[in-house]
Amino acid sequence: MKRIITIVLAMSLLLTSVFTAVSVTAAGSDYSTALKYSIYFYDGNKCGPDVAKDNVFDWRGACHTQDGSVVSLDLTGGYHDAGDHVKFNLPQAYAASILGWSLYEYKSVFDSTGNKTKMLSTMKYFTDYLLKCHPNATTYYYQVGDGQIDHTYWGAPETQTGERAVPYVANSSSAASDVCALTSSALTLMYLNYKDVDSSYASTCLKAAKELYTMAKTNLGKYKEGAFYQSNGYWDDLSWAAAWLYVAEEDSSYMTEIDSYLSHTTFLGESPFINKWTMCWDDMYMAVFCKMAELTGEKKYKDAMEYNLNYWMTSLTTTPGGLKYLSNWGVLRYASAEALLALQYYKQTGNETYKTFAQSQIDYALGKNPKSMSYVIGYGSNYSLHPHHRAANGYTYAGGENTKPAKHTLTGALVGGPDSSDAFLDDVNSYQNTEVAIDYNAAFVGAVAGLMAGKPSSSTPTPTKNPSTPTPTATSSSTVIKGDLNGDGKVNSIDFGFYRQLILGMIKTPTLIDPSHNWIDAADVNSDGANNSIDFGYLRLYLLGKISSF
């Protein structure tokens, strides 16, 4: 069974989701364009000598080419965190992780819209840098640049020359469980998304992910940065890292460790299972619960998801125009994050309420709001002209020139958003409203992809924790076993391979052991009268041991 699972996991990367991607334009929202643009944004925040390569913005070029020299390492590359130019690895790892999760769950959407190649390129730019920051098994550098110094400068990153500080490192004498674990999750997801593209690079990512996870769990403690991205804990990050390592390796010890991590209260002394916040760089609990609900089917995770989603949908402060208002600083990043969570839970449950809620938040960001304004730059005809982003702005502080409309269009950037009355101050100095950031866009990318995915099964099966090998069961026709496409009396990876080829249009019928075998009935594993990606998804879950029957 272990060998079969390995084969199945490798093959299933081509069709990970049980959704079929569809073109969507709803309520005036062009999701296909929004998805493409929201990935483009990351090119505007690239750092290092290779910025101009595969970059949609011709106004960006090489910058900060000496990063790491103060510690005799090459720490060039990666992404500036927001409108400034520091490379903070906590939001960097968060963004890479959420982008990786989005591609993993909605691969068919990225394929069908032509965005997969750009998405993988963007993600690899993240992981190339994160790997550089981990020069050996017990060391991890997690910041380049000094925030206090950097924030006194307003100008293009290309003209910000010289060496930059590398103020923090995690090692045996300096704990950083939060950022090490979050980075581990980003690298594991890159392994899962990239192993069919470049198995060697993917294996390098998984090796580093396991080393960073070991660093995180054996030397417990928060990382040292406290001025800009202050961390309040690490049990959530450890859980998130362990969940994805479980997906990659099917080792039940990760599940045991997650149970231990989640037995701790939050920094507020509360149970993490009763959470009114959402997924963000400092709180991964809801992402953990969402994934664990899928992996285990346990009630405690489902209850946590439903408590949180119900609070957001019915109790959280809402603007007159319908935007859920969690915080005045970057409100749309939180609404986008909750939208992605809702869509992931919709994928598990088929509950249309969650998708409707998610769509309302994304449509608001794309222009269905009282100002009829797009909060994604370049999307539509009415969007922010004054993003708090120095590279796009193109001016300096001299004479207040930086308050002019930006010289360059930062296509795809999700700005912070409006105030609680739906008013928006389009002012470069109103950073709560006009700043953009790599963490803002990450969940937005995933949420838009989720809205473009097809409808999930109306009766998603409940998986079991640490499942055992199932026994195939026959349908009402004693000669047909659901899932046995080739008629050999078994349900295994051979049938999975045939189904994959059928869906991709590579073959019209599987090779049959018995020419009279009713493979069409066998392929209709959910008995809805159709053979499609939903059946394929069920077959995958069956072979992985996540369900015991069809």
Descriptive account of the structure:
The chain is mainly alpha-helical and 550 residues long. The chain folds into two domains: 1-20 and 468-550, Dockerin domain (Type 1 dockerin domain); 21-219 and 230-452, Glycosyltransferase, CATH 1.50.10. The chain has 20 helices and six strands. It has a two-stranded antiparallel sheet. Strands 3-5 form a two-stranded antiparallel ribbon. A hairpin with a 2-residue loop joins strand 1 (25-26) and strand 2 (29-30). Helix 1 runs parallel beside helix 18 (493-503).
Number of domains: 2
Order the strands across the largest sheet as they lie in space. 1-2
Extended strand count: 6
Q: What series of H and E elements makes up the topology? A: HEEHEHHHEEHEHHHHHHHHHHHHHH
> Largest beta sheet, briefly?
2 strands, antiparallel
User: Structural class of the secondary structure composition?
Assistant: mainly alpha
